[in-house]
Amino acid sequence: MIKLIDYIILFMFFITHSAFAGEAAIRAEMTKKFPYSKIISINETPYFGLYEVAFDDRLVYTDEKMNYLFSGNIFDLHSMKNLTEVREKQLYAINFETLPFELAIKNVKGNGKRRLAVFTDPNCTYCKKLEKEMVNLTDTTIFIFVFPILPGSEEKAKAIWCSSDRLQSWEDQMLKGAEPKAEKECDTEALATISMRAKKLGISVTPTLIFEDGVIKPGTLTLELLEEHLKEARQMN
């Protein structure tokens, strides 16, 4: 005679097996659809029957049958907690203090107490949009890591690095469209080091922002969102 505990064990086995089967199927299908993206993990969520798919650079959601792909934030309306952001911090956050600050072009605004790192390209349109948003930031130290990945960017990056005032040359290029000119011969090995560090961090797009709490955000952000993330990062530290 089968006891109740046996039914429970069989039921739990079925549920667990089904979950793993779903995750395995989703991994196989996602690998086919996104062959050049690395999948870190796949987990069933407790909401809407969705599965969380963590790629190496972003977090997305899909249904069990993989008819749809969702990209965006999921909030718990009871606590108003951003569940997606919590998971992103767990999956992608780095130690901010390990960044090579000595290789950055430093822009100190106001008291500079808040800190923000940006990997950015002198030819990147979205980087220029971000730069215009950051103009109005206050009390923030911005560490600019020049990361030339677009055609023609390396020459501009070297010219900026070899100028007498790197910050001024950078801002002239990004905000005014003024072509940078190298004013002296100099060692540009720092740019290669920045590139290597970016690759180790999994950064492959510009702009990519890193906040003090280690959260990495690829893409440009509005001033309002920058302020929001900077405030959250300070609260975490």
What does this structure look like?
By secondary structure, the chain is an alpha+beta fold. The protein folds into two domains: 4-92, Roll (Nuclear Transport Factor 2, Chain: A); 96-236, Glutaredoxin, CATH 3.40.30. 41% of the residues lie in helices and 21% in strands. It has seven helices and eleven strands. Strand 3 (59-63) and strand 4 form a beta hairpin.
Describe this structure in a few short sentences.
The protein has 237 residues and is of the alpha+beta class. It is built from 7 helices and 11 strands.
Any descriptors?
alpha+beta; Glutaredoxin; five-stranded mixed β-sheet; four-stranded antiparallel β-sheet; 7 helices
CATH superfamily of the largest domain: Glutaredoxin
Tell me the helix content. Answer: 40-55%
pLDDT averaged residue by residue = 88
Nearest-angstrom radius of gyration?
22 Å
- Give the overall shape, derived from the CA principal axes: globular
Count of discrete structural domains: 2
The biggest beta sheet reads:
5 strands, mixed
Reported by name, the CATH topology of the largest domain is: Glutaredoxin
Query: Which CATH top level class of the largest domain fits?
Result: Alpha Beta
CATH architecture group name of the largest domain:
3-Layer(aba) Sandwich
**Number of separate helices:** 7
Oligomer: single chain
Q: Give the DSSP E fraction (strand runs of 2 or more residues).
A: 15-25%
Strand order of the biggest β-sheet: 7-9-8-10-11
**Tally of DSSP β-strands:** 11
Low-confidence runs of at least 5 consecutive residues: 4-19
